[in-house]
Structure formats: structure tokens, C-alpha cells
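User: Sequence in, structure out. Go.
Assistant: Echoing your sequence, followed by the C-alpha cells.
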Amino acid sequence: MARPAVIDAPIDCSGAGRGEERAPAALRAAGLVQRLHAHDAGEADACIRDTRRDPDTGVIGAVEVRRASMAIASRVREVLEARECPLVLGGDCTLLLGVFQALPRGSGLWFVDGHADFLDGESSPTGEAADMDLAILTGHGPPGLLEQGGALLDPAAVVLLGHRPAELHPDVARENARVDPAVHALTAPEVCERGPAWVGADAARLAGSPTWLHLDLDVLDEGVLPAVTYPQPLGLDWDDLVALIRPLVAAPNLLGASVADFNPDRDADGTHAARVVEALESLCGSR
């Protein structure tokens, strides 16, 4: 990818100040900005402190989620207007609600995530907006969380890669069944079976418009990266992940990227932060 402009988005949609809030600082401390030769584009005011579940939407801190999303959108818009390539460091996947309010209408999404993020305010057991960000963006989530209103993303312009298969757990099966059938989706085992490099190249070919790349690090297997908030088995390993994403960061229509769900509270000695930065450094040399 082009020289990135790094934006910190320390959003934790639980409102409890979990480790995701500290992920941008941890990744910077591991040398991310220097090793990516990145421009420092500052921090969005994205912290959430309301732990109450909104009775209308079923979302924790709904008003603060909306405010934080607008702050992220403002930063991303500034970077795009400067003709730079934004790299947004979460935080959790709620950051996408801000990102897509800054992108041109008709943009697509490569969504590399261990979860489908397709719940809503009723089906989510937690009420966390990161349970439902993809549903919200495609018009299937609770209304009122986006300043612009309505869907910002055509389900047919989404490629969902790396979520866990239905057989992992009944809750996973229920969420996967909610995904809009227009979404192009392959679970983590399917990605591995077909070959991560082939899947990534095919996803790059599928994108007919400018496209955003979102990486939730819980796409990795829990044995490979335990330093995420919701670790799971049956995920990718580091080699799989790099092979999958390399064609996407090399795609000429890449708008920018985001990285979410690293939890430094589960990385006492910084080993996992260093590994994340190493992978990102490898990928940023792909364009």
C-alpha cells in the first residue's frame, strides 16, 4: 500500500475502557509508525464512557458511539482530502461506522474478521456496537447510529473473509445465518482450503469500486494471537493472513485500511504487538 497516514481510533464500544482503547499506543510503542514510514495523522476523540444499553437501539452508549464515529469520520476525511492513504488503528470494529461516513458513496469493503458482525440490538448478547457494525453499514442494524442515515454499504460490495464456521458454536451459526446473502463470504476453514493467496487475489478482482480493507485481528486463531478480546479457535495463522491480505493491499483501488481488536492487556511483554507490527510492515511493502 502507499505510504500510510496513521490515525488512532481508541474506541471500545463496551464503554468500560478495555484494552482495545490502548491498542494504538501499544502498536506505536512497538514501532509501527517508524517501521511503516508512516505519516502521523493524530488521534480521533473516540473514547466511549457510557456503559448503559440504550433502550431504543439496544446498543451500549449509542449517543457516544455516534459522536465517536463522527470524530473518526472527520479524521479520515482530512487524510483522504490530502490524497493520503489512511490507516486507522482501533480500537474495535465500531470504528468502521466512522470510516464509511468519510468514504465516497459506492465504496466497497474487504472485511477480514473472525466474526460476521451481523447481529443487531436485540440479537446481540452484549449490546456492543462491534457485534453489529457490518449489519449497521449494510442497513440491517439498528437505526440512528449513523449521522447520514440509511445504509452506507451495498452488501454486494462486501467480501467477508475469515469468520468462523457455523459448526463452531450455535451462536456462531445463528449469526452467520443473519448475513445478507448478497455478501461474498468465506469462513476461515474455507479460506485455508482454497488457498489464502488465491482467495485474496479473487477478492481483489471482485472489487469493482474503490474499496476499504478492514482487519480484525481475531481472524487469527487463538493459539496464534491470544491478545484479542474475543479469541476463538479455527482461525488463520500468520502466514495465512499475510498471504490473504497481500493482494488486497496491492490492489490499485485500495482506499485505506483499518486494524482492530488488538488487546494489549493480554500482551504483558509486548511480544504480540511486535508480531502485529512485523506483519503490517511486510504488507505495506506490497504496493
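User: And one key feature?
Assistant: The chain has a mean pLDDT of 97.
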